[in-house]
Amino acid sequence: MSDLDFSSLETLEVSIEQHIAHIQLCRPAALNSMIPAFWRELPKVVRQIDQDASARVIVISSQGKHFSAGMDLAVFTEMGKSFTGEPARRAERTRRMVLELQDSFNALEEIRIPVLVAMQGGVIGGAVDMISAADCRYCSEDAFFTIKETELGMTADVGTLQRLPHLIPQGLVRELAFTGRNMAAAEAKDCGLVNQVFSDQATMLKAVMAIAQKIAMNSPMAVAGCKEMLNYTRDHSVNDSLNYMATWQAGMFQMPDVQEAMAAGQQKRLPEYAPLHKKTPNM
């Protein structure tokens, strides 16, 4: 259990049990649309969990029929109000606003622990931006994915067009972005966007929690190293990535976790690993 208090959140419900943090989007009546509070709460929550070292894996799901309808109209309304004043200063303000929105999902990549997303129903617009920043994606048979921004007269700007080409073929990304069409769960599985498709939400959550439990059983140091290396490799050459791996290993490869893993195997018990150190705030 963690001492963190998430009771005052407006858009999320958070529980932490057995090293697994479960973050639920909790506005089902509004299709879990991403109101202004969501963009503040999500990065704050995941960074607090990481900073406190209170979990070894995060599972994000949602309540209701749909995972998320994406960015709420209120956010667009606020953006519309900013289109006033001297053009250069107005543009600079808009750029900062977009960067702040992007940072909400950058947090999912930047934290040390894996993020798994379990989706049902519509995964629309900003929701695609969000799940593209997760480590692993799972969905139910009724799920569908839409880059909705194009149909709204704008270009998706919070990560979909930057991350999705690393997950599925370029031609398919372009088709989805240019047309704004729905991609069904079966197609998402075939192209590699999601790892598995499940018959319903309950079955999916049970299976994803089992995967999370398996991750949480491993050395948090080893898992954090995997995430760091995989993210770095995505954005760098093989040679640069191998060099970084060697440098990382020179400092991070120590024997206690290896010895514990070997001892647990010999004694036929679950290994017990020390948590990662808490992070210093604002670092």
How are the SSEs placed, and which strands pair?
Layout: E1 12-17, E2 20-25, H1 36-52, E3 57-62, H2 73-81, H3 87-110, E4 115-119, E5 122-124, H4 126-132, E6 136-140, E7 144-146, H5 160-163, H6 170-179, E8 182-184, H7 185-191, E9 196-198, H8 201-217, H9 220-235, H10 238-252, H11 255-267
Parallel strand pairs: 2-3, 3-4, 4-6, 5-7, 6-9
Antiparallel strand pairs: 1-2, 7-8
Helix pairs in contact: 1-3, 9-10
What does this structure look like?
- With 283 residues, the protein is α/β, with parallel strands linked by helices.
- It folds into two domains: 12-217, 2-enoyl-CoA Hydratase, Chain A, domain 1 (Alpha-Beta Complex); 220-267, Lyase 2-enoyl-coa Hydratase, Chain  A, domain 2 (Orthogonal Bundle).
- Helices cover 49% and strands 14% of the residues.
- The strands form two sheets. It has a six-stranded mixed beta sheet, sandwiched between helices. It has a three-stranded mixed beta sheet with strand order 5-7-8.
- A hairpin with a 2-residue loop joins β1 (12-17) and β2 (20-25).
- α1 crosses α3 and α9 runs antiparallel to α10 (238-252).
Summary keywords:
2-enoyl-CoA Hydratase, Chain A, domain 1; 283 residues; 6-stranded mixed sheet; 9 strands; 11 helices; 3-stranded mixed sheet
Please report the first level of CATH classification, the CATH class of the largest domain.
Alpha Beta
Q: CATH superfamily of the largest domain, called what?
A: 2-enoyl-CoA Hydratase, Chain A, domain 1
Main sheet properties: 6 strands, mixed
Q: What's the shape?
A: globular
Main location: other
Pfam families: ECH_1
GO molecular function, one term: isomerase activity
Protein name: Enoyl-CoA hydratase
